[in-house]
């Protein structure tokens, strides 16, 4: 019976906690984790926004301007990996390298953790340094 289950139905049957961002998880880490399931529009981006950053009401428009019209494009065009933070496999490795654990952000924020760099306009930003307050 499992062989006939569609990805959409399978995602609907997932327990709700598995479809929500983890405590402190940043937007690109959440979307990257959820893309193992499916990419259907901005489903995971808006799920993150609704759960963690409801005041980020222009996220769809802003991400579209940067080439993020769906979740996989958000990861490909809006955010990119910070190379020194990811252990990428060498060509002779067969196993997939697991994603590192999210380095956490505060609730209400759509900034990436230090694993990611956000594109700013047509340029790529720099990893955010901690501010001295």
UniProtKB/TrEMBL annotation:
Judging by the UniProt lineage, the source's domain of life is Bacteria
Question: Which InterPro entries has this protein been placed in?
Answer: DUF2695
Q: Name one Pfam family in it.
A: DUF2695
Q: What is this protein called?
A: DUF2695 domain-containing protein
Q: What is the lineage of its organism?
A: Bacteria, Bacillati, Actinomycetota, Actinomycetes, Micrococcales
């Amino acid at each position: 019976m499992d062989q006939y289950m569609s990805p959409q139905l399978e995602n609907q049957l997932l327990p709700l906690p598995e479809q929500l961002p983890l405590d402190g998880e940043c937007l690109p880490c959440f979307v990257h984790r959820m893309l193992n399931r499916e990419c259907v529009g901005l489903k995971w981006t808006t799920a993150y926004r609704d759960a963690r950053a409801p005041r980020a009401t222009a996220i769809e428009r802003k991400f579209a301007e940067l080439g993020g019209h769906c979740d996989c494009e958000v990861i490909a065009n809006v955010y990119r990996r910070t190379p020194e933070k990811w252990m990428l496999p060498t060509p002779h490795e067969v196993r997939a390298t697991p994603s590192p654990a999210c380095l956490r952000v505060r609730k209400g924020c759509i900034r990436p953790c230090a694993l990611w760099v956000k594109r700013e306009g047509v340029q790529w930003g720099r990893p955010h340094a901690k501010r001295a307050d």
